[in-house]
Amino acid sequence: MDKDIQKKLSSVKLVIADVDGTLTDGYKYYGAEGQALKRFNVKDGLGCVLMRYCDIEIAILTTDTSEIVPARAKDMKIDLLIRGSRNKKRDFLKLCEEANVSPAQAAMVGDDYNDLHAFEVAGLNISPSDAHPKVRQAADIVLRAKGGEGVIRELADLVFEARGIDPQLEYEW
Questions:
Q1: pLDDT-based confidence at 173, cuts 50/70/90?
Q2: What topology does CATH give the domain 3-163?
Q3: Which of 52, 85, 105, 167 has the most CB atoms within 10 Å of its CB?
Q4: What's the rounded Cα separation, in Å, for the pair 99 and 56?
């Protein structure tokens, strides 16, 4: 890993993640009664636990307005959440303020055009491997995982590596 990127990863205090195409595979499923469902990867839940071990807070920033996102955020013990965002740059900065961190200490994980505005102010930009080509090009880190395949979990491993933390840690789950 590039030394500058490793240094940025070492100083991250907040990770802000998009939902569709990042925490999910980007598909939306509908039941016969019209109920909408999304598929999340449980590995990201462990990724959040590992991030908190490193004193990194996780936030969600999405254009989605459904009740699915707050339910998943609660399950992952994420308190910082903005949904229905129409200006991700402004809302990224708002989440940084709520977490009491500078934008330089925050990473944005996103996959499509609307995430690029947050990339303009984030200290570190990260994308899944199947993100839009322009987003991958703008990213400091392109993960191996596709959206919905454990993006936050993979990022946690990179943080451990950058900080020299033994992944065989003792942690009360």
A1: low
A2: Rossmann fold (3.40.50)
A3: 85
A4: 10
